[in-house]
């Protein structure tokens, strides 16, 4: 049980270190770093490496933004097997729609409760 927590912390931390290096070493802005991490997660899923990482690291690999890229590709590939080319498009939206909807709803509620500083 302790090993599971340890590896989740290490893998999640390494993903965060990569993101920080994109900021500090490569002088990227948040949008660029975000895009690169999402694409890396998508590529890792496309070549079949993200699922073993999820099995090994658990929340350490499923919480960071790389997991969003994984979800996009994973959903697209699953639906493409069932519905062909149109499944590529619908699969991405079907798998990620709950998370995106939750983010929009909670951001709206937060905006209603707290005053933004501009």
UniProtKB/TrEMBL annotation:
Superkingdom of origin organism: Bacteria
Membrane-spanning parts: 6-26, 33-50, 85-114
Keywords noted in UniProt: Membrane, Transmembrane, Transmembrane helix
The keyword Disulfide bond appears for this protein: no
InterPro entries: Spore_V_AE, SpoVA
Tagged with keyword rRNA processing: no
Official protein name in the record: Stage V sporulation protein AE
Organism this protein belongs to: Pallidibacillus thermolactis
């Amino acid at each position: 049980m302790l090993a599971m927590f340890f590896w989740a912390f290490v893998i999640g931390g390494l993903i965060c270190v990569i993101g920080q290096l994109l900021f500090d070493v490569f002088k990227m802005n948040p949008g660029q770093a975000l895009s690169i991490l999402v694409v890396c997660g998508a590529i890792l899923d496309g070549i079949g490496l993200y699922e073993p990482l999820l099995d090994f690291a658990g929340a350490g690999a499923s919480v960071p933004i790389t997991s969003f890229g994984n979800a996009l590709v994973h959903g697209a590939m699953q639906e493409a097997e069932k519905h062909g080319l149109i499944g590529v498009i619908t699969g991405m939206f079907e798998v990620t729609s709950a998370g995106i909807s939750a983010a929009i709803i909670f951001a709206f509620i937060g905006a209603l409760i707290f005053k933004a500083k501009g």
